[in-house]
Amino acid sequence: MAVSARAQWKGYLRFGEVTAPVALYTATSTSDRIAFHTVNRETGNRVRREFIDSVSGKPVEKEDQVKGYEIGDERYVVLEPEEVASAVPESDKTLRVQAFIPCDEVEKVYFDKPYYLTPDKMGTDAFALLREGMRKKKVAAIAQTVLFRRMRTILLRPHDKGLIATTLNFDYEVRSAKEAFKEIPDIKIEGEMLDLAKHIIGMKKGTFSAEEFDDRYEAALADLIKAKLEGKSLPKRAPPKVSKANDLLEALRQSAGMKKPPAASKKRAGKESAAKTKAKTAAKSAPAQRRRAS
Question: pTM score > 0.85 for this model?
Answer without folding.
Answer: no
